[in-house]
Write a structure and sequence with these properties.
The structure is a homotetramer. Chain A is α/β, with parallel strands linked by helices. Helices cover 33% and strands 24% of the residues of chain A. In chain A, helix 1 packs across helix 5, helix 2 crosses helix 4 and helix 5 runs antiparallel to helix 6.
């Protein structure tokens, strides 16, 4: 295997689908949201993507069977003339620099094939501080999308993002911009220290408004409660990291 | 040398051979087992595999001659209509991400050439704790293999393997699954701190049951006794690492 | 995207242009100078260069729109028969070793296309010590350039540069030397700890003499004043790093 | 530049030349010896080798001119029917894993072109302890060379070299073995902490015996005296590192 392999699992016709990308990243916010959508809508796996740029690793399922790490695309066909979806999920993002570019090229080819006109990439924005923020920060590759995001409660252009957006959620916006395919990134504010189902809820709520689908939050709420109990237990034991003091480096940081 | 080079040392016809992979890894468990089998059965080297993905290194033999690091395949032809074997051993696994995928592709080509229907990959499962566990943990790329492994004393699906299986022992299962070639991984439980001939014995015993060959354990037993003496000496000197306390990170670990 | 992509934004004819390269580096000295020149001369963007060797990242603008990281070439056409310029700027240098060579090859192709006869690469020379030095250190790929640099106040051959010059500013000199295209590197002495608009002023002044253009320093002066205030505040708070004592390693350093 | 570039500087006919490789490495022993030979014999540069696998760097000469990092081959044509030589020197070894294999392939092509029948690679063997050892450790890719090395005072097969030989000095032996081109590696015992002209003297003496050329040691002796003075000064100041105590890891080290 020297190149990306695209394995077609099922043929499907979709009507103006939107792509939602939720690969692993900060706080696993995007992954939690994307997997929640797949489960709740009963979306079907239609494509598996394998690449030598993923780590050389298999996942072991609870019954002892394995799965080669990959990215997968699920399709949701709305019964009622509603919004069709393609959802990108996976075990890992690329382990190499060049692999990110190659894999995003692959996603874009698939987007073109399905006539996709809009992509939402999902992620977390790590602040380094424990909080229960429900804020969502957005970025777009077409200024006309700003108002749509704002009307869904997403903060756009209100905060300086010095590090930009790294990985698929950012790169996909950049590469789509070159072919004038509209894409927006929704980042749930999170500590960056742990999986954050609470932040995922906020992102899911905003995304739901944007794509016109109302999602049940039950599972994510339960997971958030579980997570809060763990954090509380650890805080009582003094094991939760404190936010670091701002160092002078930030004041003098390089001007991008 | 810009690509993998396959050097044929000897032609041989085998009857439905099984592949056993024992490259270096955790506790060198797989390597110990595979080299023990080669020695005991008098298997012959038939193929050498060189690759720019291996470290740029030579091994120096005790007489001052050298050997370019490689992977090698040994063949065992049973005299008595017994089980024929192909055994993969080597000095190193790939030093690069992509190299793992390329080398596994090479092993699979060779498996096809010999009409292989089953592969066993061998490794260690590092717990971070010194113990004399004889447990073996298994994983399979076809659920029909679970019962066979269990009947040989291998624990399958009893333990969560959060990190999955990294390297050739895992990747080979994943890549074989894509072409429906049955493969199972046997991992001896070991500390991960040192070479573990005791764990290797357990793996060899289980593997012997699975492939219908009874192995003499003498050499591995001797090495295990030697190793225990060293550990004891070090423990008396206070030099053996204690198992680390579980950190809160593990409780909150990302959900795969 | 598996290769470098050159996107032409605008066609332009230039008369014997000189190339000025100011990509991010030590103290962002080169970047500050190049961006200052673009702004002051009103140079126009004519080329965008994208590469899988750049980090997989987008920059987020203050209005929430994004920009895929790239390198860009701006052109300045002098009205008055003065010196035409091509200016190379960007968000990042290559993230991989090989990428540096590939990207420099690209710059050289563009240089040939425009009939460029001279290149100035700009950077910082980090001393590890806070100072207000206005020194500029130069290096050339043709000994005939030494006197020109000296007459512009650049120190050439007065100081041992043990680490050589790493990155585009150095590599471009080396690769141009192979095709006998004259190139010189101007490095402003700087601490290496922070963005240094003061050092950028010195470089800009020397460069101005070399290319026969007088630049207004106002913006850089203001930025330098701002930066000095920050440093002063930090020094009062005891937060500015002291220069490290020379370690014995430097005395015994390997002879290049 | 996406591939290795071989630049021919001068055509020369040699009579059964031996190759001597002395690229930078442990204690710069090989580099010191090779450069000493070039200087003393007045060998001429005939080939320059450039590669995107070298660091993206230029060396700055004392007069301010630069040199793109490369590897170079010098030729020595003996007047008196003596031994002709090809000497490989350079600023760096490959910065990437695959680059080592590619560059060694290049050296071997050049060896074939000149009808080379023997290669000596030179390096240092770092012990981690300051000493004035004059020992030389050898390794060969053909057992018939062992006695020749021993008769020149080189220890072969007397010491376990657990890490093998890493980099060009080892890889060249391994890759030459595959085409049955005789090669031997001479490693001067050294601390590994600093440039070691004393160890270089020992290697040069042994190499001289092997190739039948008597070298003047004057320059290396002077450099060794200088280096000893520096070490003494540092020792008095308490700045020289002490050898580390052997850790238990070495006792239990993985069996190759």
């Amino acid at each position: 295997m020297k190149a990306i392999e695209i394995k077609r699992i099922k043929d499907i016709k979709l009507n103006n689908p939107i792509i939602i990308e939720g690969l692993p990243g900060v706080g696993h916010v995007g992954k939690l949201v994307a997997e929640h959508i797949i489960k709740q809508l009963g979306a079907e796996k239609i494509i598996e993507i394998y690449s030598p740029h993923f780590p050389p690793q298999v996942i072991v399922n609870s019954n002892g069977t394995i799965k080669l790490v990959n990215n997968e695309i699920y399709a949701y066909k709305a019964d009622d003339g509603g919004q069709d979806l393609l959802i990108i999920v996976g075990d890992h993002q690329s382990a190499t620099n060049e692999g990110h570019y190659e894999l995003c090229s692959t996603y874009i080819s698939i987007a073109k094939e399905f006539g996709v006109k809009r992509i939402y990439t999902l992620g977390g924005y790590g602040t380094g501080e424990l909080s229960e923020s429900t804020d969502i920060i957005g970025a777009v590759n077409n200024i006309e999308l700003v108002e749509q995001l704002k009307s869904a409660g997403v903060a756009v252009g209100e905060q300086e993002l010095n590090a930009g957006i790294i990985g698929v959620s950012g790169l996909l916006l950049g590469m789509c911009m070159q072919i004038e395919l509209d894409a927006a990134c929704l980042m749930g504010v999170t500590s960056g220290y742990m999986v954050d189902p609470k932040s995922a809820q906020s992102v899911l709520r905003a995304l739901g408004k944007l794509i016109g689908i109302e999602f049940d939050m039950h599972d994510l709420e339960e997971r958030a409660v579980d997570m809060m109990k763990i954090v509380e237990k650890l805080q009582n034991a003094g094991q939760v990291p404190q936010p670091e003091l701002q160092s002078y480096n930030e004041d003098l940081r390089y001007i991008g």
